[in-house]
Amino acid sequence: MQSRPVLALLIVILLFFAWGVFRFTGKMRVTRENRQIASNKLAELQKEKEKLSGDIARLETPEGVEASIREKFGFAREGEEVIVVVEDKNKLEAKPPQSSGFWSWFLFWRK
User: How many folded domains does the chain comprise?
Assistant: First the structure.
């Protein structure tokens, strides 16, 4: 038991087991990170489920259906008027301020 080859063999076996434990702890860390990611995703999906359940409940009422149709298609009730805001396409664009340096003077005379 006290010979050098036996001690060398025991050290090799010990290193083999130590390497296995080291790899196992790395896998545990990755598993913990993946579990945290999955928990976050689950929480997001539960919030989205609650929101969609609320939307479904709202659409089951006549007022909810009417609001959805008005929003999507721009319909109005009888006697109401619809106002459509249109952007002015002829709007003048603001020009950047011009510098009064040598190059602007040179480019002015070059034209």
Answer: 1
